[in-house]
Amino acid sequence: MKCKKCGAKASVNMRQHKLALCKEHYLDWVPEQTERFIKKYEMFGHHEKVLVAVSGGKDSLGLWDILNRLGYQADGLYLGLGIDGRRSPSGDGIDYSHESQRLTQKFADARGVKLHIVDIEKEYGQPIPILSEISHRGHGKPCSVCGLAKRHEMNRIARDLGYDVLATGHNLDDEAAVLFGNTLNWSSEYLLRQGPVLPASDGLARKVKPLCRFYEREMTAYCLLRGIEYIYEECPFAEGSQSIYYKELLNQLETTRPGAKLTFYLRFLEARKRGDLFIEQDIAHAHLHPCPRCGQPTSTADLCSFCRMIEKVNSVPTS
Amino acid sequence: MRMSQSYREEGTLSRQDGRITFRGVPLVKLILRNKEYEVKPGMTLLSALQKINIVPESVIATRDGEMILDDEILKDGDVVKLIAVISGG
């Protein structure tokens, strides 16, 4: 497969865009697209201070790298969660938080960018798994407490340190999995809130997701091609999680229907923007009128879809 | 020798000149995390992933440190490292 821009051997093929690119052009394309999404969704400007929530994973480090390449004032925030796979139920993991902090610090040092580190245990007396145990939240898994603590601390630090906006590395697969879960449950409140930008409100910093239109696969490719060292091991508590299961299901769909994930997410954003979600419509009387040929009700301006199809068939000369 | 996942029930594996073979045919090795799979050379990466039941969208394949695409023909002796792309919890 050849690069669409230069004809060299392609390194990445994005079937949903019908676009294959070589390493050089892919590494140009990703920041260009990120800049486009930042502007399209009015996330932030070059005059604003951005705090990037970094975990040591491919998405957040990739995002931080891209924002720095684009010339934004982007500092990093790492939250030490105190997760150690050796103390997880399976007991065969790595010291996850220690390793992810090491990789994040290494990234920051190599580029000379500012990194804030906040340790949950130092701030609140216990690491996340113990906070979860003590508080009896999350049905035996610390993920719910982890999410809660991260949202709280990211907002607190962004506000206390005077950042204009908090950026996270959520990619399209993250967003599609959340959307899929919320759709399965018809969680209208969550559906109406999901989007690339969560505007600032009283006490809450503006939150943005500049990678929300990149597939997870594309962010992995970006980090590999850029030589960004990220934590490859999964959080020891993520095994068997619902979001990973949804991602796997959506990837099966994507394999046979390229672009399905992107369409699912973008059509949702369009519907939300139009205000089409959860507004009851009088479907039975929605601009129906009789088809001028067959008389059956149709919503199209002229002939009904069936009559148009027959007309098209009849217009093709038969041999 | 670690048995191939895809050929486990079809016959015996052996080694010839340090290479893994199946009925005398050299194999291609694919590695995902700590699991190893073997397929016959001559098929595309996409066919190989389908044969070992790995969803192509969920991995990136590298050979000799270079990323390879679905249409790449796998050759005798190739070792393909598969990088899982899904993360989160």
Task: Describe this protein with a few key phrases.
heterodimer, A: 319 residues, alpha/beta, two-stranded antiparallel ribbon, 10 strands, 12% strand, B: 89 residues, 5-stranded mixed sheet, 3-stranded antiparallel sheet, 8 strands, 8% helix
Q: Uncertain segments of chain A of ≥5 residues (pLDDT<50)?
A: none
Number of helices of chain A: 12
Give the mean pLDDT of chain B.
Answer: 83
Radius of gyration of chain A: 24 Å
Can you count the beta strands of chain A? 10
N-to-C terminal Cα separation of chain B, in Å?
35 Å
Rg from Cα of chain B: 13 Å
Largest sheet of chain A: 6 strands, mixed
Q: Quickly give the structural class of chain A.
A: alpha/beta
Widest beta sheet: strand line-up of chain B: 5-4-8-6-7
Unreliable spans of chain B are 7-11
Largest interface: A-B, 35 and 18 residues
Please provide the ordered H/E string of secondary-structure elements of chain A.
Answer: EEHEHEHEHHHEHHEEHHHEEH
Largest sheet of chain B: 5 strands, mixed
Mean pLDDT across residues of chain A:
92
Query: How big a fraction of the residues of chain A is strand?
Result: 5-15%
Quaternary form: heterodimer
- The neighbouring-strand order within the major sheet of chain A is 5-4-3-6-8-7
Strand content of chain B: 35-45%
Number of strands of chain B: 8
Number of helices of chain B: 1
